[in-house]
Predict the 3D structure of the following.
Amino acid sequence: MDILKDYYQTGVEYLILYVPKFLLALVVLLVGIWIISKLKKSTKKGLAKKNYDPSLIPFLSGILSAILYTLLLISVASMVGIATTSFIAVIGAAGLAIGLALQGSLSNFAGGVMILSMRPFKVGDVIEAQGVIASVIEIQIFHTVLKSWDNKIIILPNGALYNDKIINYSCEPTRKVEWIFGISYSDDIDKARTIIKENIFTDERVLDAETPYININELADSSVNFKVRAEVVQADYWNVYFEMTEKIKKAFDANGISIPFPQRDVHLFNNQQ
């Protein structure tokens, strides 16, 4: 009977000691979950109001909620009486081991975070990076998916992508189309300039028709080269480039302007003794 009485007293003591802690921890857990859900929603709304990239919003809110949930669980565990020091040490050691094993993946993860936060490009932009020129169709945490002009899908790791040179062709609403047109040294420069101006800078898609850029760029080995630049909206870039290249060739032919090509004179000597 004494043993049962001792067990009973011990049980009552434990109940008195731990039930209030457990109930308090449960209340803190429920309130914490509610607060975290509210913070997650407000974070999403705040990022949306600041016009953040749609692919960035769920990632940032997810990272925030994961950190807050981890802190909440550690706090609740300590309130119940669970020793969290060793628990945190184990998590740290496991994190270090995982980090060493996944250095490349962590580098790509960090690159993805930087791309999503700094936004050097966005979905739909045409970029040049890692030796390719293609359109961005998806930005993920570890890699970015591109589509080339011939419908090839290109997947670039974010670590290498962010740490290399990125050329974004879609940042500005307009672009400068550039051509190099060569004429013969015997042709009339002013006549060639007039032909270029009348064929390119009268097109309604050219935005800087009032200030045409037509200059002699180089006195090359076999030609006098004009450099021509015309400003157009992004959507018209390639159509204007290809159409005007063909148009100038036909206009030069019709007006007797020759487009020279490299030639080589070969002299044969017959040395007979």
Notes: Residues 168 and 188 are 39 Å apart (CA to CA).
